[in-house]
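Slide 14.
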Amino acid sequence: MKKMIGFAIVLATIIPFAGTLRAQAKDGKQPSFTSLFNARNLNGWYSFLPTKGRNNDPENVFTVHDGMLHISGKEFGYIATNKTYGNFHLAVEFKWGVKKYPPRDADTIKRDNGILFFVSPAAKDTVWPRSIECQVQEGDVGDIWLIGGATVIKEGKRSEPKDYNRIQKTADGEQPTGEWNRVEVIVKDRHIKYLVNSILVNEAEDANLGAGRIMIQSEGAEIYYRKIEIQTF
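Slide 15: predicted structure.
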């Protein structure tokens, strides 16, 4: 009986404490996602096309309709956030369209897009600026591309600084072309993780870049994004 009474006292102490922890988690101490895309326009972003410059898109490579960002892929370029980000959790949802353009118009060439991050606000607009990329390409979603001398440590070894350096994903989480996919880029203290449909597909650490703009490419293939959101920490 004494053991039962003692156990009841312990429960009476623990349960309110657990409730307090749950309440604290709901208080806002856990970071929440903020939308980077309002589903109406490209407020908060600027566009860049090498032949036109910033915010000059007469052929509507980047448009918003039906609550989605539509990237035609007709010309290489990107949209970029006006703000810069360091430690963050970015989540996007995309699906491929049908149209393809040179040099990706052949049936045998994969549809291609990508998410660049850690782009210095001082960097010149170009295709492509120094950055780290989460590859969005048919069959290769989650590859790490290191651009313009960016480096990371993968499996204990520092990558070589090159114009373009690829670190292939170690798992596959993609849905078939035409279906929606969720891609997450999580960066904390220069440690990088890529998730595709909740599957960890790539990871690296100690990136030599640490903060900058986020960019979404146009790269010869039609693509739709219906969600672009971020947590910062």
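Speaker note: The chain is about 10% helix and 45% strand.
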